[in-house]
Hints:
Blueprint: E1 7-11, H1 22-26, E2 30-34, E3 39-53, E4 58-62, E5 65-67, H2 71-80, E6 86-90, H3 92-98, E7 111-125, E8 128-133, H4 143-148, E9 161-163, H5 167-182, E10 188-198, H6 203-214, E11 218-223, E12 228-233, E13 236-241, E14 244-248, E15 250-255, H7 260-272, H8 274-292, E16 301-310, E17 314-324, H9 331-338, E18 346-347, H10 349-359, E19 370-374, E20 380-383, E21 388-392, E22 395-404, H11 410-419, H12 422-425
Antiparallel strand pairs: 1-8, 2-3, 2-11, 3-4, 3-7, 4-5, 6-7, 6-19, 7-8, 9-10, 10-18, 10-22, 11-12, 12-21, 13-14, 13-20, 14-17, 15-17, 16-17, 19-20, 21-22
Amino acid sequence: MDLAPKHRQPFHLPGPWPGCARGLVEGGAAWLHSGETGEDLLIWPGPALISTWDGRTWVNLIAGLPLPGTPWEALASTVSGGIVPWVGAASFELACDEASLPRQCLAPGRLGQHWMAVREALRVQDGIAELWSWTESPVDSAAWVVRLLAAHPPLGPALTLQAAWDEGQHRAAVERIQTCILDGEFYVANLCMPFEGSLETDLLDLAQAAFHRAQPPFGALLDLGGFRLLSLSMERLLSRRGQRLCSQPIKGSAPSTGDPELDRRRGETLLADPKERAEHTMILDLVRNDLGRVARTGTVEVVQSMALEAYPTVLQLVSTVQAEARPGLGLADLLRSVLPGGSVTGAPKHAVCRHLAQAEVGPRGFYCGAMGWLAPNGNLDLALPIRTAQLQGDRLTYWTGGGITRLSDPSREWAELHLKTRAILG
């Protein structure tokens, strides 16, 4: 996690990690986890910027005070006007509104984005802990960490999920999309469906087990004002380092088994699959187009195409697109161009989103929105919240989805939805 602090100091953990983090998580700390590096960051929340739908428009509040502009404008002015980074997430429906795309109707009071200022954090890697600070003064007191850190034995996760519709309903939805494709309305659509469940264990235990099982590069457990988000995402939606922009869309997946030879053969089959290659190519072109709208002319390039990446539960095809930002590009314009991510909509976006707003069972919420961190200097790293659970009380919603083309087999698409629950269920 490229969130370099201004100050850091060593810290002695009082017990085995991450069991001793329970109090921090229960106290509202944001937990970012990278399966690539084994790095954990527990962030004590500062003032929050939130946007809520009032039935007519998005209402922006920062530390309880109103903030003018659209949600992206409010976020841009908040981040650029400070000295600390911000961590949080935004919903799919808010991103659709900012990009003038059709979306599902929302009930008043629906949360659209929640970002918290990052002033201090506990960073742990390979059992070594440090206190980090982004303020002008170094950390002079670890009281908030000491008070909330305590060793707790894991309880063991227990979770069951029920699909929102059955295989026949999903088949009908897939076939309707294929009819639209044959009629020339769009080329590919990412159809999503929620699974519902009741959390029967401690949330920290569920997160710990899921992080260990799925090894997500962009894992996170966020408290968005009482609404919890557990993300096991593998997909980089957008990063910016100086003028360099990068997106890494994922399209094409197959189950991994842990058997190297079997997974190698499955990977070769995935790479050669005409449907998966066509789907990936169309989304890759869409991402190139999105970045091209905010890039210097001639700088958009695919630096890696359809690379096979293996995770404990899934094999996936990933491409990397890079570009140079045009001079003066601001955060709001950048987010409007890229969000919602092409790999979770389809192409072209407007026609697909119009169809999905009628076809899916309800609003996606933070699933398929954006999640990560933003810095005052313009740098950012946002994941696309796939493999992501949304929790309200003990109720858990976990969406999964897949790209539908004219070559899609409805039975395989139904199986893919369940494959993607393995990240959280095992």
